[in-house]
Protein 1
Amino acid sequence: MNTLLLERIAAARSIALFGHVRPDGDCVGSTLALYNYIRSTAPEKRVSICLEQPMAKFAYLEGFQDIVTDPAQGIHAELAIALDVSDHGRLGDFAALFDAAKRSLNIDHHVTNPHFAMETICEPERSSTCELLYTLLPEQEISREIAACLYTGIITDTGVFKYSQTSAETMRIAGVLMETGIPFGDMIDVAYYRKTFVQNRILGRALTKAVSVLDGRLIYAVITLEDKAEYGASSMDLDGIAEQLRLTEGVECSVLCGETEPGEFKLSMRSYEKVNVSEIAACFGGGGHIRAAGCTVRMPAEEIMRAVTEKIRGQLLC
Ligand code: AMP
Ligand code: MN
Ligand code: MN
């Protein structure tokens, strides 16, 4: 067992936990799991979680109400731990607080991680940061509350145990977590499948706007600020659309290109078995995993999609 995390926690009196911008289930689950672990095993330590406001659907996780969403609140800690953060920029407005700590540690599973913290535990073969974090904590300390957090990250990052990084070890860990008595079926519905009315409608919009190119092997959709305004949707409401596009028959790669502010687009890319989308995201200053990656680009959408299509064509020809 890698004891670095436990050693760093033991040596610190105050600890701040950080995640990435637009926190997903793995980010919220891993930060809250570690928060609950420190609170239950070392109640004398000061521990805080600094995150952009996560989606309300994760409110069933213990400690959710304690999340500090305002960087100006100025949480200073001896030890800063970033979880599921693939690069420094992904710390967003909390970067300065992270940098101000005497020691920093990053626990992550992104293949593109450049080891920006003082110390890094990054295992790209892990399905999720939650799976990795499980291996860094003593099993006997995993309460039902901590298990719920870890299970949430595993199901959201594996698409409920189906993405390529899901391993026998992922399933074994999920099994141990289930044994704590968590309501796993409800959690899968709430954290992964359930959508709000607005989310279902903007998904419908993306599906009808979808464009099929490269003989049907690439499918993409552009959601503009006008689309979002018409449906009352936020950027977070676009979550899951790239994955739904990928499920189209014959598709190898899907891209959702969602406008975040005038002229700026967030790309979510998914692939099936051939295209390495983390490489394509990296060309545009982003990153992620081989089968799921993202980036933010300031260019007209048509130009972005022309460039991305060419890169995907190149990979498909190899
Ligand atoms: P998304 O499409 O936002 O669900 O992201 C897919 C994967 O790519 C996740 O693992 C993200 O952490 C990663 N990712 C998304 N956007 C970026 C970005 N701008 N820079 C680095 N990694 C990203
Ligand atoms: Mn994440
Ligand atoms: Mn993750």
Protein 2
Amino acid sequence: MTSDSVNWEAVRADFPILHQEVRGNPLIYFDSAASSQKPRQVIDALTRYYEHDNANVHRGLHELSSRATDAFEAARNKVAKFLNAASADEIIFTRGTTEGINLVAQAYGTRYVKEGDAILLTEMEHHSNLVPWQLLAERTGASLRFVPVLEDGTLDLSKLPELLTPEVKIFSFTHISNSLGTVNPVADLCRAARAVGAISVVDAAQSAGHLPVDVQALGCDFLALSGHKMCAPTGIGALYGRAEVLEKTPPYHGGGEMIVSVSLHKSTYKEAPHRFEAGTPNIAGAVGLGAAVDYLESIGRQNIAAHDGELVRYAQQRMEADVPGIRIIGPRDRSGLVGFVMESAHPHDLTTYADRYGLALRGGHHCNQPLMKKFKLPGTSRASFYFYNTKEEIDRMITILQEAARFFS
Ligand code: PMP
């Protein structure tokens, strides 16, 4: 697959922040797995919303309120289409992946998970897809189980039959590992969960903006994403919930907007998704997420995935061939990020060194402490790419890493 049909230089020009110097060098932003940059189209949508349409949603009977409501609900429709959800009612706006997973753990988990049940996770989960389940397990007396990670950074699926038994009520796993770049076989895992009567929860923080994600084809019950990793603002995300499962999930937060009627001692609640959106939502954020979805669709996620793939293969090949003392962690077949260690330097020191040359990497445990422990590493350095990056930037990174290798030896 190639992405030759897209003018990538013109795409890069959409991102004002990329065209600056940092510490006297052209910025090389290789930290998009932590947070992506925003194109002018998204920034303009936010400005337009605040300059023309800003008001609270759903409540007011005035023109601006109905415009804000329309914009908010239009964004919900865009996200639904983007994920191929059967209906926009299956899309709940959240602050991000972390909140989406907590919502499932708190609302669905508290109602349906009991003592003696099990929650199945994997050893490669981000803390956001681990700690909420630990809290649920503590509250309910359920146990946690983990699909092991093999030396090559893939899941040991041979262990699935003994782990995924009828006691498992929830199987929650990441689509793409934020440290290893592993792409998990989501559809197979969702099918396996359903076969034992468990619901599946997919952490799509690293995948939603990078490759086509079709919730119906994947067959998942819940899927959580973060807007800020896919060109949208911070503080907005979405949780997809399959209608049948959402219908039987009680509310999460209580407050305005999620109720039908309230008396002093009892309230009744709206249907999904409004039942899960108490209080004034992040309206501008949702508008920004809608604009980001439009933007990503205009490039095409197949093209984005192909371009990411070309960058990551090139980076991998150059790092292995041209930088002494580097070890890449994770499978060869990976999404658009490379986690690595330089034998002579702690990841924090290497990342700080790179920053001196305007190269933004990430160094540390990447909210994957159990995984780092498993690989006996204090952490890794991570270069993560998005479609606005170039091979020339990778070449510059290689030069900086070569100099670092000399500096630290
Ligand atoms: N899961 C994965 C795989 C991630 O990479 C991240 C962000 N680093 C999260 C969950 C959490 O996302 P957020 O902080 O946007 O809620």
